[in-house]
Specification:
By secondary structure, this protein is of the alpha+beta class. 43% of the residues lie in helices and 15% in strands.
Length: 137
């Protein structure tokens, strides 16, 4: 996956406003970028700042350079730093395994037809969202 494709993908998701949710989002996206081979799991630092060109471009375009402090990533166990690199830890990769709660509920009238509800469900899933459609009640 190219950097542009990755940024386009993650920009489909809104950035949270809650400060700790922003830390989790950054950690998750750093891990996701490493898994997608956009950048390595060890990101180069220079004087405590990210100097890796790919990651710096991501931070500028996705976060407009207003991303959470790297110290918050470290203190929450998502990353570690050895002076020359910011290492994405297992805790950040574990975030990729979490299933996000559905925030879209599809309501429909069964007597009319469930076909349209199923079409909406399929299209939302294609867009990378996790809608919920109750077919049993």
């Amino acid at each position: 996956m190219s950097l542009d494709e990755f940024i386009e993908k993650v920009c489909q998701r809104p950035l949270p406003t809650n400060p700790m949710a922003r830390v989790r989002t950054l950690a998750k996206e750093l891990a996701e970028g490493a898994v997608e081979n956009v950048w390595p799991a060890s990101i180069y630092l220079f004087r405590g700042a990210i100097s890796d060109e790919l990651t710096a471009t991501y931070l500028k375009r996705r976060w407009d350079n207003h991303y959470p402090s790297l110290n918050l990533l470290i203190s929450n166990g998502y990353c570690s730093a050895d002076g020359q690199a910011l290492n994405v830890n297992k805790a950040a990769f574990d975030l990729l395994e979490e299933v996000e709660q559905a925030n879209i509920f599809i309501s429909y009238k069964r007597s009319a037809s469930s076909a349209f509800a199923l079409l909406v469900l399929a299209k939302l899933k294609e867009a990378g969202l996790e809608p919920f459609l109750d077919m049993a009640l």
